[in-house]
Design goal:
Helices cover about 50% and strands about 10% of the residues. By secondary structure, the protein is an alpha/beta fold. Strand 3 and strand 4 form a beta hairpin.
């Protein structure tokens, strides 16, 4: 299957609700997987890949369905719940380029099932580097192929079995068009002189380490700003941790186990008895009754903590330099440098048709500007910038440091 280049100025977008060649049966047995592996190994060229998760319904962001498409092979849909180890698939595709749309969203869960590409092409990132205004898959497919995709099933419970045919059509369309999109974006990157830049960015996405776990993840509880007292914060922490442990054990999204609003309400209301707690919605609801002792025990643990073990009302500091807007009084020279760099990067962004955030990660650029190193290119490379970013931005930072040293 191949699509012709599309001119958005002269043609209309054609809606597509199912893959042109139809669906294939979901691979959910070892025997079917062995056949799929042989078919993938016999295919040619890059492989388009995507995954569906159920993070709003299940604990974690694990792959529930893996979608692959390769020329000469066709569509492969793999049930990653029934088949949680896919090293044989990885072996069949050894050395192949994997094509994603927003690879950073899919790589973590694919690596968990044994799929670890050595070369990728990211159509979403490519579209960003081209300065396209719409970089979602539907917008990019419409621009490059003239095909309209409906995206209404993205937030479904992909752990459900069997998966409805309409959901499978949606999942299949995420990959069956992607190789043609890749070819169109590669051609556009070559025409724009950005192909080497894109390859460097794709490699950086592939090499990026896992995110560092957040300190005090319970502080992300929605509505926490309404909790001021340290003892109440301890209640939030104990309830959050009790909920998280239970959610992991029963494989249910934490918000489905107990909503954030209930945690905050229990902390701020300070129920005197377990019966009082049951009066706070939804602690007394039918589905919550079996967990009421657990929540009451968590509240009592918080109440019995010595003051020295109560959480700080301010929370941990994530960095030492603060946002650039806070530098004006305490670090006026750094603030002046940052203002110069912001203006220059905005001009570069417009001139090169590259979003500001893709010129260099804003937090890394801010750190280099704040520290004002003697060797700016070396400092930028050490911070994780790619050579093309250093070439564009190092002169800008050097000029700002020269104008505002100290």
């Amino acid at each position: 299957m191949s699509f012709q280049a599309f001119d958005t100025e002269t043609a209309s977008v054609v809606p597509l609700a199912a893959p042109p060649d139809g669906l294939t049966p979901v691979v959910d047995t070892p025997e079917a997987l062995a056949r799929a592996v042989a078919a993938l190994a016999a295919g040619q060229g890059p492989v388009a890949a995507d995954s569906e998760r159920a993070s709003g319904f299940r604990y974690g962001s694990y792959a529930q369905l893996v979608q692959l498409y390769r020329r000469g092979t066709g569509l492969v849909l793999i049930d990653a719940v029934a088949l949680p180890r896919l090293e044989t698939v990885a072996a069949a595709l050894s050395g192949a380029e994997w094509v994603f749309h927003a690879a950073s969203q899919d790589l973590p869960c694919l690596r968990e099932v044994g799929l670890n590409p050595s070369l990728i092409f990211d159509t979403e990132l490519g579209a960003r580097l081209l300065g396209w205004p719409q970089v979602g898959l539907a917008g990019v497919v419409a621009r490059t192929l003239g095909i309209g995709l409906a995206k209404q099933f993205s937030a479904q419970d992909w752990s459900r079995r069997p998966l409805p045919e309409s959901w499978l059509n949606y999942a299949a369309l995420d990959v069956v068009l992607l190789l043609d999109v890749r070819d169109a974006i590669e051609a556009a990157l070559e025409d724009a002189g950005k192909a080497d830049m894109a390859r460097a960015e794709f490699a950086a996405v592939l090499a990026a380490p896992p995110p560092v776990p957040r300190p005090d993840p319970w502080r992300r509880t929605s509505g926490l700003h309404n909790v001021r007292d340290q003892r109440q914060l301890a209640v939030v922490r104990e309830l959050w941790e009790a909920r998280d442990a239970l959610a992991q054990r029963i494989d249910l999204a934490p918000g489905k186990v107990l909503p954030d609003a209930a945690i905050v309400a229990a902390a701020t209301t300070s129920p005197a008895t377990k019966a009082d707690l049951a009066k706070i919605h939804p602690f007394g609801a039918k589905g919550q009754a079996k967990w009421l002792d657990r929540w009451w025990d968590a509240i009592n643990r918080a109440r019995n903590l010595p003051r020295s073990e109560l959480p700080s009302s301010r929370g941990p500091r994530h960095h030492t330099i603060g946002p650039a807007r806070s530098w004006a009084n305490r670090h006026p020279e750094a603030y002046a440098r940052m203002e110069m760099v912001k203006a220059a990067t905005a001009a570069l962004s417009e001139e090169r048709a590259i979003p500001v955030e893709n010129l260099m990660q804003p937090e890394l650029l801010r750190l280099v500007v704040f520290e004002a190193p003697a060797d700016v290119p070396a400092a930028m490379l050490a911070a994780g910038a790619r050579p093309w970013q250093v070439e564009l931005l190092a002169p800008v930072v050097e000029q700002a440091i020269a104008a505002h040293p100290g």
